[in-house]
Amino acid sequence: MHFCSVLASLVICMCEQECRVVSYISIAGFQVDRVDLKAETLLEVPGYSNPVQFGVLTSFAYPLEEGLGEIIVATTRIETMLGDTAIAVHSQDERYKHLHGKYAVHPFNGRKLEIICADDLVKATFGTGAVKITPAHDSKDFKVGKQHNLDFINIFTDDGNINENGGPQFEGMPRFTARAAVIDALKEKGLYRGMENNDMELGRCSRTNDIVEPMIKPQWFVNCNTMAKAALDAVKSKEIEIIPPQYEQDWYRWLENIRDWCISRQLWWGHRVPAWYVTLEDDKEKDMGSYIDHWIIARNKSDAVLEAKQRYPKKKYQLDQDPDVLDTWFSAGLFPLTVLGWPDNTADLSTFYPTSVLETGLDILFFWVARMVMMGMLLHGDVPFRKIYLHPIIRDAHGRKMSKSLGNVIDPIDVINGITLEGLQKKLEHGNLDQGELEKAKEGQKKDFPDGIPECGTDALRFALISYTSQSDKINLDIKRVHGYRQWCNKLWNAIRFAMVKLGDQYTPPATLAVHSMPPICKWILSVLSKAVGKTVSSLEAYKFSDATSSIYFWWQYQLCDVFIEAIKPYFNGSQEFESARCASRDTLWACLDTGLRLLHPLMPYITEELWQRLPQPKEACRKDSIMISEYPSAVQEWANDEVENEMEIVLDAVSKLRSLLPPTDIHLRRPCFVLCRNLEVAATVGCYQAQIATLASVSSLEILTEDDPTPPDCATNIVNKDLAVYLQLRRALNTEAEHEKLRKKREEVQKQYDTLSQKMSASGYREKAPQSKQDDDMKKLATLLEELEIISEAESKLDAKN
Ligand SMILES: *[C@@H]1O[C@H](CO)[C@@H](O)[C@H](O)[C@H]1NC(C)=O
Ligand SMILES: *[C@@H]1O[C@H](CO)[C@@H](O)[C@H](O)[C@H]1NC(C)=O
C-alpha cells in the first residue's frame, strides 16, 4: 500500500431540508451524470439561491513580464484562474515561439506563470492557442503539472469555498460566487476580454445533482500487478469460467492494463484504513499525514504499536489511525471470504471455499468480480468461485436506462404487488427530485403506465426475467410480458384443479407407469415430457436459462394444457368402454403434473410448491416435505416414442387445419367433418386418433374417406399434406367465393415454391455441384409439390361442380 496525492472529484452533498451537511467523497465515474450544454445555461445548484451560469467560455488577458505585452486565455471555470500556475502553448505556434520559457504575472497575487509547451494538450487552432494550466483542479492540467513539475495549488476548501490560497479578496466565497467576483475584478484591472457560448460537458453528481469539481486529495493505493496477473491466468487456464464467454475479452483487457487501485474513500462508514500515523513530540507539522514516512501499515493496533516502538525507540509520540475508510469495492471484494468466517479458519471456509458459481450483473465485472478474485487468491490462495455467470442489465420497455429523473425506474415490489398510477406518482413525490424533474418523471409514468402496474406476483416476475436472459446484454422490461406469465400461473392452477377432479379423492399414483399398454395420446405426452425435461436440464447445465423457460412453457402450455388435457376429456364421460383409457390417463396426468411442477420449480418456486403439495402422493413416499428438496426430474428413456410423436404431428396439423375452417361467426357450433386419406397408412393413423381429432377440433363427428368416396357436399376444405385433406361441413354457412379465394391463394403459394425449386434445379452447375442426397431430396419435394397442385385443382373443380 502506498500513499500519494491524486485528483479526486469533489461533491457537495445536501442532506435533509434545513440543515446543510457538507461532505466530500471521491466518486467514481459511473456516479457522475454527464450533461451536454450547447450554449449559456443557467442551472440550479444545491446551496445557491440564484441559478449559476454555465456553458460559456470567458476570455481574459494575463500580463507578461519584461513588457512583452499580454497573452489571452479562455476558460469555462474562470474562478480556477486563482490556482493557475502556468500557461501552455503549442511548440510550433509561431505566435508564441518568442515567449517559450518566459513568464506571465498573475494579476491578483503576482505569482509568476511560466509559458510552457504542451503539444498533447494545446491545439494552436483552438481559441488563442494559449491555455491556462490549473494542475490542482483539472485532470488534464494535472498531467501537465506532473510533466513540467509545476506547483499544485488547491484553491478550494472542502466546503466548496475559496480558501486562503485564493487570496484575501476571494477567500471564503462559495466557488460560484467567486465566479462572478473574479470577472468583476478582471474588468476592474482591464483584463476581461469577453464571453461566448460554449459547447461543453458538465459533470453532476447522480445523487445530489451538485457540480463535480476535481480536487487533489491524498489517497491510499494498492499496487495490483501481481494480483491482476493471477486473476488473469485463472481465467486463461479455465480455473474460472466466465459465462457468456464473450466477456472474457473484457476481463483480459482490464487486467492486462491494471493500474494502482485507489482504495480509500472519503465516506461516512466502512472498514477503516489499516494505517496509523505517528506524530512525534518534536514534529514541526502536527497534521496527520504531514510527513509521509510517519505512516505505519499494520494488521491491528497492537502490531502498529510494536512497529512504532521499533522505529522510534527513544521518542515520545502519539499514534492515530487514519479516519478514512476503504473503498466499498475493497470490502465487497472480501465477501466470499468473510461470509465463510475468514480470517478465522472455520469449518465453513474449508468446506465451501471455493464456491461454485457467482451470478451478478455484467456491469460490475471489474468493480466487484475481479476484486473478489484478486483478493481471494491473494489472501486465501485460491479462486473464490469456479464459474462467473453474468446476467444482462434491466432497462425500460423502450430500451432506456432506468433513471430517477425519467421516472422509468421500476421497483420490483410494485410489479409483484401491483400499484395504481396514483400510487406510482406518490412514490415520486416522496423521492428527492426537483420540481422540473418531478414533472418530467410523472409525465413518463403516465405514458408508460396509464393504468398503473397490474399485480404480477413473484413467480411471474422471476419467470419473465429469466426468460429475458437471452436478450444480449440488455433486458428491455415490458410489464405486459410479466403480466402474461401471471395469467399463465392461473392456467397452472386450473390444470391442477381439473386434475384433482379427474383423479378423484381415492387416487393413489402407481409406482411405475405401464406405458406400453396406454392409449397413444398418453404415450405422446410422456414422450414429449421426457424431451422437455432433457432440453430443460441441458439448458440449465449450459447456463441457457431462457431456453429452459421456453422448453418448460412450451410443454406445459401447448402440449399438456392445450392438447393432452383436452384430448382425454372424452375418456371421463362415464362410459364403461373407456375404463382402461381412463386409468391410463389418470396415471399419465399425475406423472405429468408431478414431473412438470418439479421441472418448473426453480423458475416459479411459490406456485409450484403450493400446487405440488395438493397432488396425491405415491404409497412409498409417506411424507411429502417440500418440492424444494424433491428430486429434480431427468429424461426417461422408456417414455421416448418417435413413432407416436410423428403421428401426433400429423394429427395436430389436421386439427389446426380443421379449426381454421371454422367460420369466425359461430365458432362454438359443432359440425361434422371428413378426413380424406389418400393412402392406407395415413387412414390407419387417423383411425387411431379419430376421437382426439374430433375433440381437439371441436367437431360433432369425424368420418374417414378414401379417394373412392364421393366428396362430401357443402364443405370447406383444407389440405394438410399430399396424403391428407380435411373437410368441414358448413352447409349454408359455406361461402363458395371465399373457398375459391382460399384455394387460389394456396395454389399460388405452392406454385411459387414449385417454381423456385425447379428454377434452382435447372440452374447451371446444379447437377454437377449439388450433393446427390440433396438432389434426391429436391426431386422428392418437387414431386410432392406437383401432387399438391393437382389436389388443389381437384378441390377447385369439385367446388365448381356443385354450383
Ligand atoms: C494483531 O495481528 C497479529 C498478526 O499480525 C496477531 O498475531 C495478533 O494477535 C493481533 N492482535 C490483536 C489484539 O488482535
Ligand atoms: C361416451 O363417449 C363415447 C364416444 O363418444 C360414446 O360412445 C358413449 O356413449 C359416451 N358415454 C356416455 C355415458 O355418455
Describe this structure in words.
There is one protein chain. By secondary structure, the protein is of the alpha+beta class. It folds into 5 domains: 3-17 and 219-273 and 322-391, 3-Layer(aba) Sandwich (Rossmann fold), CATH 3.40.50.620; 56-197, Isoleucyl-tRNA Synthetase, domain 2 (Alpha-Beta Complex), CATH 3.90.740.10; 394-455, no CATH class; 483-640, Isoleucyl-tRNA Synthetase, Domain 1, CATH 1.10.730.10; 664-802, no CATH class. The chain is 40% helix and 18% strand. The chain contains 24 helices and 28 strands. The strands form 10 sheets. Strands 8-9-7-10 form a 4-stranded mixed beta sheet, covered by helices on one side. Helix 9 links the parallel strand 21 and strand 22 (385-391). Helix 11 runs antiparallel to helix 12 (435-448), helix 15 packs antiparallel against helix 16 (545-567) and helix 22 (736-762) packs antiparallel against helix 24. The longest helix is centred in the C-terminal third of the chain and has 30 residues, at 772-801. The model is unreliable at 1-26 (pLDDT under 50). Bound molecules: 2-acetamido-2-deoxy-beta-D-glucopyranose (NAG) (2 copies). One 2-acetamido-2-deoxy-beta-D-glucopyranose (NAG) binds next to helix 5. Its EC number is 6.1.1.9. It catalyses: tRNA(Val) + L-valine + ATP = L-valyl-tRNA(Val) + AMP + diphosphate. Residues 1-15 form the signal peptide.
